[in-house]
Design brief:
By secondary structure, the chain is an all-alpha fold. 53% of the residues lie in helices and 0% in strands.
């Protein structure tokens, strides 16, 4: 009996040309294409076999957290200033 899995979902992402080329070159050294690597990565994620990196545990983030908890913070603008800055980023 022929059991085949129909793959009917396409997942895409956008990266710079440089990232794509470097990834392609490095993966080729291991005998993989970008598509194969992404497929294998998604299978591992689906099976809960990946360890996600928490940037909140970096030394810089932990130092910032300690400063905030000690009240050693400086206000550099309002929430409105931040929202204006975000809006300007979205325009670009």
């Amino acid at each position: 009996m022929d059991v085949s899995v129909i793959k009917n979902k396409t997942v895409s992402t956008r990266v710079t040309a440089d990232i794509s080329k470097r990834a392609k070159d490095n993966l080729a050294k291991q005998g993989l294409t970008i598509s194969e690597y992404i497929r294998l990565s998604l299978i591992k994620a689906a099976n809960n076999e990946v360890r996600l990196v928490s940037f909140l545990d970096s030394p810089e983030a932990l130092a910032a957290k300690k400063e905030a908890e000690a009240g050693q913070v400086e206000t550099i603008g309002s929430l409105s200033d931040f929202e204006d800055w975000i809006d300007k980023l979205d325009e670009n």
